[in-house]
Structure formats: structure tokens, C-alpha cells
Design a protein that fits this description.
nine-stranded antiparallel β-sheet; 6 helices; alpha+beta; elongated; 323 residues; 2 domains
Length: 323
Amino acid sequence: MTRDKQLAAGALALVLFGGLAVKQFRDDAKLGSKAAQDSALPKFEATEGADKLTVTNGDKSVFVLEKKGDTWMVSKPLSAKGNQANIKQAIDNLKEIKIREQVSSNPDAELLKSYELDASKGVHVVVEQAGKVLVDATFGKSGGRGQLLSIGGKPGIFAATGYSNFLFARDAKGWRDGEIVKFEEFKATGLHYELGDTKLDFTLAGTTWSGTANGKALERFDADKVKDAVRALQTLNADDFGDGKTEVELGLDKPSLLTIDLKDASPIKVAVGGETPSKGRWVKREGAAVATALPSYAIDWVAPEVSKFQKAAPDEAKPKTKH
């Protein structure tokens, strides 16, 4: 290679190297700028130790949930024990939210409304601990850019990931404790029903169930059906509440009665009333402040017919032949 060609090749190499260096510098600058932008984005504070959650679902409803000792309570719009699992899930979800970008730095009222971040549509969530605000955010539309939200005290609209809307868009039933009955199956030692003129008693001796109807041994008694009943009754949860309704309206003025005997615990006593609008039954556990609605799929064993505990009669058990 001639000296002139060597010089030309060297010059070309310098140009290429210089171009690559400039590109790398620009890429590094972009990365630095992106990192700076990310660090400037607001972050959600840790919610451990939270003792108050306020959820405002636009202009529809406001729910205030406060921790009393170790128990979450609903304090608005009514006073009731809260659904511990649902409240914890909502607060824990806030830790999963990651703000990815700023969509608008100075939104006007129209833009906030179009993104459903205005007072009539947005889901406003405030979490506090001993009066200190840990989280103050309003959540609006969700789309291709992620979940849109605004942060209290910070101008702008942001896009984030990790938010689960269904955890906050609950109605009153979702925030209230719906537990009616809960016990461990192996602890049940007796079931007793008062069904009008019929009284059914089932007792466990050792590992054997026995059954009587109005004090007499139940014909064609099927002990396995009692086991089915115990399994079905060990967890009963409400799907509605009878606030403001009278016992007459709920059919609880002359109820059927269910008593569940438990080993090493007080019996559970439940009054069973009339039918709910959704074909369930109104029930009220002894000591409860308000009656609750038991869903239709869970009512089979709260006020059953005597036949539910009997084996089929011999003629019923035989398959019918076609002529």
C-alpha cells in the first residue's frame, strides 16, 4: 500500500472512530437524561403501618376504613367491621404501582375530565398513618400508556403500571366483613334444626353420627349427609346486608333455627328467615348487629327438609323400567 493510501485509510478510520464516539456520547447522554427523568418521577411511599384508607369513587360513593387495634373497621358511610382481606389487598396493591412517565405537566380541567381524573369520575385514594398522608392519588382511565393517575400536591398526569382497579372500585358490601359462620370441620360435634313443628338433632359420638326427628330415631338415616352438611356449613359468607329492614320484612320474626355444636367452643346459633331477592335466605347469627343475606348456592343445609338426611326408600332406589 502506498503512503498516500495509508494516510487516507488512517483518516477514514479516525472519522469512523470519531463518529462512533459521538454516537456513544449521545447515547450515554440520552441514558443519563432518562435516568434523571425516572428519578424525578413521584414514587409511592411504603404503606406498612397504615391505619386509615379513604376511597372516593367519583361522585358515587365515599368509604372510610380505619384500623382499631388490629381490626379494620368501616367508619363511613356506616359503622361495621371491615373485610380484613379486601382492605389489606387494596393497601398492598399500592406498593406494586410504578410510575413510568409523565403524560402532561400542566393539565387543564378538560384534559383531566377526558382522562377521567376529575372529581366526578376519578377513584381518589388516600392512605394515612397517625394522621400523616402516605398516599394521595387519583386514578382514571387505563389504556395503551398504562394506568393514568394524578398525585396530590404534584402537578401533572402520570402513567403507571401495577394498579388493580377492582380492589378499590368496591361497593359497601365489598368493604364490609361478610363472615357469617366459620369453623373447622373436625370440631363440629352436633347439628340441631328447629324447622317449624320439626326438630332435627344430629350428634357425634366418637366417629359416628346419629340422628333423630322430634326425639325419635330418623328412618333411613344417612350419616354421610350430616358430614355433607357440616362441610357446607363450615364457611358461610354474606352477599348482602339487611340494614334498615325489620325482622318482619326479612322473615326473621318467626325464623327456623340452626345450632352448630363445637368442640371446646360455644355453639353457633343462626336464625334463618325468608327468601332474599336473589333467591337466597336472610339469616342472623346470634349476637350479630344486622341480618345478612346468604347466597342461593349456600342455602341447602341451613334449613333443609328431613329427606336431605335420609337414604332413598327402597322403591325410590330401584331404577324405573320402560314399558
